[in-house]
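S.,

Sequence below, as promised.
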Amino acid sequence: MVILITGITSGFGRAMALRFASEGHQVFGTHRRDCEQIPGVCYIRAEAESDEDCRAAVNQVLSTAGRIDVFISNAGFGIGGPLEFCSLEDARRQMDVNWMGMVRFLHYVIPAMRSQGGGKILCMSSIGGLMGLPFQGLYSASKFAVEGYCEALRLELRGTGITVTVIEPGDFHTSFTARRQSVSGPEVEKAYPTYCKSLASIESDETNGLKPEYLAAKVSRIVASRRPPYTCVVANLEQKLSVILKLLLPKRLFAAILASYYKL
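The prediction came back faster than expected:
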């Protein structure tokens, strides 16, 4: 299969590229900075914030391989901090990369898949796209947008042979933690005295989280499936339980549980 993955420099993207290349697929991946390249993988430099880069990347795959069987929207990053202190520019960039980056690529991928009679779309969301996480509000908002967009897209593409799956990871040990842009300063800590303790807890959970190879194996099985699931939570048992509790419990009770967990 011909597979295009966005954001393969590190973390999930690199793990998925390694997995699919080892399985004999023709793998293309986008990147925005120099990195150690995986043998057999075609690297395409592209910024998720650039319409032209996204169009050119898709066209390069189509001109080289003639089709795109699987598209995986993975490029993204996180901005942490109290929403009050996150700038409007922070909000714009968070949405532009995590949500609009996906939208830009799909704008060019979907017509190609329609013309070839089918394909598989997998979009990376997060457990943070199922519940608003404190001090990660911008990130959660961008992933909520991914969830809503894909839910509508899935219905619109019924009968086309194109499937849409949303991947919802929990905490993983990747470079995402180190690359998170966090708001800081005395005024932030004064206004939100629990912020530093909560952020430390978040980073500890991620550092001790699952390895990206675990997610890559799950995604590989989804790609090989004849009937891919609509959504797939990839997380430890505690985090999977939190998703179920969010659906079952009264909102006020679940909010209290989440506040206690994040030491608010």
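DSSP finds ten helices and nine strands in the chain.

Coffee later?
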